[in-house]
Amino acid sequence: MSFDPFRTLKYPLLTEKNIGMIERENKIVFIVDRRANKKQIAKAMEKLFEVKVESVNTLIDRKGRKKAYVKLSKDYKATDLATRLGMI
Q1: Between the CA atoms of 26, 31, 37 and 40, what dihedral angle is there, to the nearest 10 degrees?
Q2: What are phi and psi of 32, to 5 degrees?
Q3: What's the pTM value of the predicted model, to 2 decimals?
Q4: Mean pLDDT, residues 67-75
Q5: How far apart, in whole angstroms, are the C-alpha atoms of residue 77 and residue 69?
């Protein structure tokens, strides 16, 4: 199976808390494929959005979705990416 970043990242999660994280912590939250690991998520973000990822934290919520909290490197702004995605 070849690597498909579109299959790894499903969609950005837009909540009031996540908007705060974008502004304060330079993090953006995505719902991702449950089988994706942190390295695959980082690679998909870097390939699709041409940004540098500093770290990825994941968790599975009550609805069974896998959330990825992606912290971008200081050279890139999460607010710029969120604006490009039409989130804010």
Answers
A1: -70
A2: -125, 170
A3: 0.94
A4: 97
A5: 14
78 phi and psi, to 5 degrees?
-65, -30
Residue 56 pairs in a beta bridge with 70
pLDDT score, position 3: 79
In b/e form, how buried is each residue of 33-45, taking b as 16+ CB within 10 angstroms?
beebeeebbbbbb
| Lateral strand order in the sheet of 53-60 | 9-12, 27-32, 66-72, 53-60
- SS3 labels along 11-56: EECCCHHHHHHHHHHCEEEEEECCCCCHHHHHHHHHHHHCCCEEEE
Half-sphere exposure of 52 (CA within 13 A, CB side): 5
Q: What is the mean pLDDT of residues 27-36?
A: 97
